[in-house]
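Quick check before the chapter quiz. The format below is the same one you will see on the exam, so make sure you can read both the input and the output lines.
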Amino acid sequence: MSDEVAAARYGIDAYLDWVNAEGIPVVEGDYAIDLFEVETSPWARVGAKGAAVHLKGRGDFCNMFLFEIAPGGSTAPLRHLYEDIYYVLEGEGSTQIELPDGAKRSFEWSAKSMFSIPINMPHRHFNAGGRDRALIVSTTNMPLLMNTFHNERFIFDNPFSFQERVGKENYWTGEGDFIPIRPGNHLWETNFVPDMANIKLHEYADRGGGSSNIKFVLADGIMSGHMSEMPVGTYKKAHRHGPGTHVICVTGHGYSLLWYEGDADYTRIEWKHGVVFPPCQSQIHQHFNTSFEPARYLAMGIGNVRYPFTMQKRQTMIGDKGQKQRSSMSIKQGGNQIEFEDQDPRIHAIWLDEMKKAGITPGMDKYFSA
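Here is the expected output.
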């Protein structure tokens, strides 16, 4: 092999090179993981313990970072050009942000809070607890940014200010603006949601099973977030979409089935608070509530109703001109959803058995005859 060939630079993943050089644990490979069980280690850049989470379905654009802040501790001041959506797994504390005019804003969070920092604004997280750690996970588009620019100084030391991303004053207090569009696409615009377990949701009948949801625009960014709920004794219609949407359980517990069209069997994932899984590209998945309380999950990725980002997202969320969005259109019609009457009969039988074992009265009679 010539010296020229040996020195050739090709097949580079600048993001993976960067994250491995950061010296933190990198979780890879599985369909799902319990974030409470992820190992963290000191992360010099952040000033706290951390880890990166790379599951099978993360795709090209997204990842997760996990931050463990010691009792009474804080992260180092940080700013960056990638966007993120933070979800607080446990603990309580506050985040301070420096706005483009030098003014400071801060807000207090606790377990099951969600927030986004406007892009490239200096910020710092503080653990208010004197005895317990704070554990926060963020879903980011860092892989997209690093693989685009492959220059960490540009991403972390860029002075440009995005003044228009600050948002209204009340976006930092837990309030926001409801923007009605249509069922399944109604928006809540804000920067901070204090309690994801209790935010108001809206009926999404097309998904079935008494489903309800709300979608978010956070810090006017391109990252997506939506909260969905299944009532007790119900489940949702199977559907599919692109990769990178990290689904994390917030309330209740249950399971999800994942499969590809034509598969003879399913991959089953058991979930509870803190379990996360991003379905892979075009992998059909279906969620089932097996708890005595409504089950809520938060889905975070890239591309939203305001900024779809990719053509696949635009067709899934918005729909082609004059047509229904593909997310709630039957696969038989070119969409991404399997209607209850078209699903494999084994699926309902499995769920009925789970209801019997749990001692829960099934609530799907309107969709299935006895």
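If your answer matched, good. Helices lie at 3-6, 14-21, 142-149, 152-156, 311-318, 345-358.
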